[in-house]
Structure formats: structure tokens, C-alpha cells
Design brief:
Blueprint lengths: L8 E2 L2 E2 L10 H5 L7 H14 L4 H23 L5 H10 L1 H8 L6 H20 L7 H19 L2 H25 L12 H20 L2
Antiparallel strand pairs: 1-2
Helix pairs in contact: 2-3, 6-7, 6-9, 7-8, 7-9, 8-9
Pfam families: CPP1-like
InterPro entries: CPP1-like
Keywords: Membrane, Transmembrane, Transmembrane helix
Length: 214
């Protein structure tokens, strides 16, 4: 514990606390931020006794002590969330491990190929909206998803199940986001703007499925 010694009086003059103007209450008392309450109280008592002859010094010591105690009380009432610990717990959970185990990083060529396909579909949907909606592009996106998954996994059954499941999930999630989360976008106008944005969200999710599902 870094506590300054100075005696009570020097030539009949009170000894002044050398850290009287230090702003950090922990540094003012000469203790670490991990100090226990017993250590905080011990530092306060020692310094008050050491500089009892100088009231401003005692006031500075008491003020630092009070600030630390109030902060400790606040921290107990409002515990901080350890994000790193939460992330570790999430990674260790069986559900997260199961989900992450269903994905793998493919070669760069696969990523580029699938990205180009869905970017083209997105551009066609966004730039050339029709009164009927992007029905054709959406159908093509489903076919493309099944094709790309089959091309990687070489399994017709898994390609169909993954493709159909991903499509249903992506469309439902896109619809939910459009209804509950995403506000109307001024860039997309027309009677089918809802379907256009939903389709773009769906393409993004289908690209993830086409590229990373295993």
C-alpha cells in the first residue's frame, strides 16, 4: 500500500498531504483498484492519522474514500457484463457448437462464383422491378442455391433439403424484418417495393447457405 509518511507537525506547521490535488481517488489514497474494503479503510485511517493536523488534507482523504466507497456500492448494484465471458459461454453452448459445425469456409473461387450469381440476381431485382414482383428471380435464387450446395456437397438429398429449408427460412426472416424492423426505404419505390427488399434480404441469406453450409 503506497501511503505517505510525514509526521504530524514540522516546525509547528501541519504536514500537508502530498497527493491532496490528485484527481483519481485510488491514486490519492495510494491503493490499487482491486483493493478490498479492508484495505481501503486501512489506507483512510492511516492517512487521516498521518495528516490530522491539516484539515484540507483530511478533507481530501475523506473525499477520495467516499468516492471509492460509492463507486464500489454502484458497481455491486449495477454489475458490469463481461462480454468476453458471455462470448466464451455462447461458443461453448451445445446449440452454438451445433450451428457453427454446420458451416465451413470454402475456396475463394466458390465464394466469388456464388457472390456473382446472387449479386446479378439482386441487381436485376432492384433495377428492373415488375408489377408481378420478382417472382422469376426468386425462383432462380432457389434453383441456384440447390445447385451450388449440390456442387459443393455432391449430395442431391442434402442439396434439396438445405436449399428448400434455407429458402423458406430466408424468406420468412426477410418478411419479418421488413414488417417489424426495417423502415420503408426511399430508394425503392413502387407497388412491389416490399417484395423487392424482401427478395434482396433473401438473396443475401441464400448466398450464405450456398457458400458456407456443409
Amino acid at each position: 500500500m503506497d501511503a505517505s509518511y510525514g509526521g504530524d507537525m514540522t516546525n509547528d506547521r501541519p504536514v500537508i498531504f502530498p497527493r491532496i490535488h490528485v484527481r483519481d481517488p485510488y491514486k490519492r489514497l495510494g491503493i490499487s483498484r482491486e483493493a478490498s474494503e479492508d484495505e481501503i479503510q486501512a489506507a483512510r485511517r492511516f492517512l487521516v492519522n498521518q495528516y490530522a493536523g491539516h484539515k484540507p488534507s483530511v478533507d481530501a482523504i475523506e473525499s477520495a474514500h467516499d468516492k471509492i466507497i460509492m463507486q464500489k456500492f454502484y458497481d455491486r448494484k449495477n454489475p458490469k457484463i463481461d462480454l468476453k465471458k458471455k462470448v466464451r459461454e455462447m461458443k461453448q453452448s451445445r446449440f452454438i457448437q451445433f450451428v457453427t459445425s454446420r458451416f465451413q469456409t470454402p475456396s475463394t473461387n466458390v465464394i466469388i462464383k456464388t457472390a456473382i450469381a446472387f449479386l446479378v440476381l439482386g441487381a436485376l431485382t432492384f433495377l428492373f422491378p415488375t408489377e408481378e414482383g420478382p417472382t422469376l428471380q426468386v425462383a432462380i435464387s432457389l434453383i441456384a442455391t440447390i445447385y451450388f450446395i449440390h456442387d459443393r456437397l455432391k449430395s442431391k438429398l442434402r442439396a434439396f433439403l438445405y436449399g428448400a429449408g434455407s429458402f423458406i427460412f430466408a424468406w420468412l426472416l426477410g418478411t419479418f424484418l421488413m414488417v417489424s424492423v426495417i423502415p420503408p426505404l426511399p430508394l425503392v419505390k413502387g407497388p412491389r417495393s416490399f417484395e423487392v427488399i424482401t427478395s434482396l434480404i433473401t438473396y443475401a441469406l441464400l448466398w450464405v447457405s450456398s457458400t458456407y453450409l456443409k
